[in-house]
Design a protein that fits this description.
Elements lengths: L2 H26 L2 H17 L7 E7 L13 E6 L2 E10 L6 E4 L2 E4 L5 E4 L10 E2 L7
Parallel strand pairs: 4-7
Antiparallel strand pairs: 1-2, 2-3, 3-4, 3-5, 5-6
């Protein structure tokens, strides 16, 4: 294979792979931020004393709106077994890869509607960060 054929082949591969990669990220989220969240957040939860048996749900997600620019876009949603109607959210800072709990929590009310609250709840951490701050 001569040099020109190699260049054309490489260009063709890039031309085909770019849209496929773009569609993948749109449907599944950024694999790097997912890796960061899956690495640091479960570790943080264990460090502060939570065991897997205490968690009803712990899963990575990407919000459909902008969050605090100091954090990676993807975050973790956690539901504790002893508080099944409250969803807590955790994020990882871009600087220093520190895990922080977001102050906003989704609480399911008796009528089935989910409300966002910032008040102290059973599993609130002392220092939390608003995920709606610093979005400009």
């Amino acid at each position: 294979m001569n040099k020109r054929t190699k260049v054309i082949l490489l260009f063709s591969i890039i031309l085909i792979a770019s849209p496929i990669g773009f569609v993948y990220v749109l449907n599944n989220g950024n694999p790097y931020t997912k890796y960061i969240a899956n690495k640091y957040i479960p570790e943080h939860l264990e460090e502060i004393g939570y065991e897997k048996g205490q968690l009803k749900v712990s899963d990575y997600g990407e919000p459909k709106y902008l969050i605090n620019k100091d954090f990676y876009h993807g975050h973790y949603m956690v539901v504790f077994i002893d508080e099944p109607d409250t969803r807590y959210f955790y994020g990882v800072t871009k600087k220093g890869k520190q895990v922080k709990q977001f102050c906003e929590k989704d609480v399911l009310s008796a009528n089935g509607v989910s409300d966002m609250v910032v008040s102290k709840t059973k599993h609130s951490e002392k220092k939390c960060v608003n995920f709606l701050d610093n979005r400009d």
